[in-house]
Amino acid sequence: MKPHSFNWRRFCAMIRKEFIQMRRDRLTFGMMVGVPMLQLILFGYAINSDPKHLPTAVYSQDNGVFSRTIVAGLRNSSYFNITSEPKDEKEIQKLLAETKVQFAVEIPTDFSRKLLRGEKPDLLLEADATDPTAVGYAIAAMNALTPMVLNRDLTGPLSKFQADSAPFNLVVQQHYNPENITQYNIVPGLMGVMLTMTMVMITALAITRERERGTMENLLSTPVRPGEVLIGKIVPYIAVGYVQVTLILLAAKLTRSGIAMRSGLGCVARCLTIFIMA
After folding, report:
1. pTM higher than 0.70, yes or no?
2. Residue 124 DSSP class
3. Residue 172: in which H helix or E strand, if any?
4. Rounded to whole angstroms, what are the CA distances from 10 to 111, 182, 186, 194?
C-alpha cells in the first residue's frame, strides 16, 4: 500500500476523534443546539413585519353615529389599540412627541353631517412614521376598515352612500420623514449595521490572534486579571467605533443628505457607548 494513499481506517478514526472532541467541548455542543433554537425564536416569532395592537389616540369632536362607529371599528381592529383619548390638539402632539402613541385619529366636528351630505369630510390620521413598515400596514388597514364598518350604518335611504372606497378623505400626516426620503432611514440604520459587523469581527479576531500566537496564556500568567484583559481589549475598539460613526456622519453631511441630529451629539455618544460595548 502506498504511504500517501487514502485509507478508510484512518479516515474513520479521524471522524470518531472529532465526535469525541465535540462531545468533550460543551461550549461547541451548546452552540450547535442553542444557536438554531435562538434563530428560530428570533426569526420565527420575535421579528414581526406585520405589527399589530399599535398604541393609538382618538380625538373625536363629533358625537354622531358614524364617528362612534369608526371608533368602535378601531377598537375591534387588531392593528390599533386605543390607549388614550386626548382633549385637544396640543395633547395629541405631546403624546406623539413622547412616543406614548404611534397613531392619532382626529374626527372633526361636522364629520357626520358632511358625510350625510355626501361631501366626503376629512379624517385626519397622524402617524409617528419612524417605523415605516408599521405605518404602511396600519394605513392600509384603516382604508379597508372604515368603509366596511360604515356600510353597516349606511342602510335604507343612506345606502346610496355605500361604496367600495371610504366615503371620506383619509388625510395622513407623518411626523417623521413625511417625504419618504430613503436616506433618512438608511443612514441612521447603517451606523448600527456597520458597528455590529465590524465590532464583533474585529474584537473576535483580536482574541483569536492572542490565542493563536500564544500570548493569551502569557497575559493570564501575569498579575492582570481576566476581567481586566477583557475590558482592555474592548475599550480601544470603542474609540474605533466612534471613528466609524464620525466618518458616516461626516459623509452624510458632505453629501448633503439633509440628515440633522436633533437630539445632540451627547445623547448619540452615550447610546453608542452602550451599543458598542454590547
Report:
1. no
2. E
3. strand 169-174
4. 84, 58, 53, 45
